[in-house]
Amino acid sequence: MAFLHWSCQDVAKWIISLGYPHYTACFTENLITGKKLIYVNCCYLPRLGITDFEDMKAISAHVRELLGTSEPLWSRSIADPPRDSMGLFLEKKSRTGDWASSSRLHATIPC
Hints:
Elements: H1 8-17, H2 24-29, H3 45-48, H4 53-67, H5 85-93, H6 98-102
């Protein structure tokens, strides 16, 4: 989870490595750090200035791959959590402070 410590410049280098150098300004001007990548998805990318739908899908898939999260199921029940366990954990880690820094992911064994 080294990406949690990425600066805006590290995120820009990662975007370049994915083959999208023309989007580096979208990420750096919006101060997207590794912790903020947790919130980057197809709904958020247009606010950054990325509107090409194919690029949005590809970047979102790369972000999910980096984070180790799955694509959200749009047919999920409203009774289910909004994200998988890793996604919920990463949302908690995206915050700053001692509490977020000390958070750890613990595997649970189903009954």
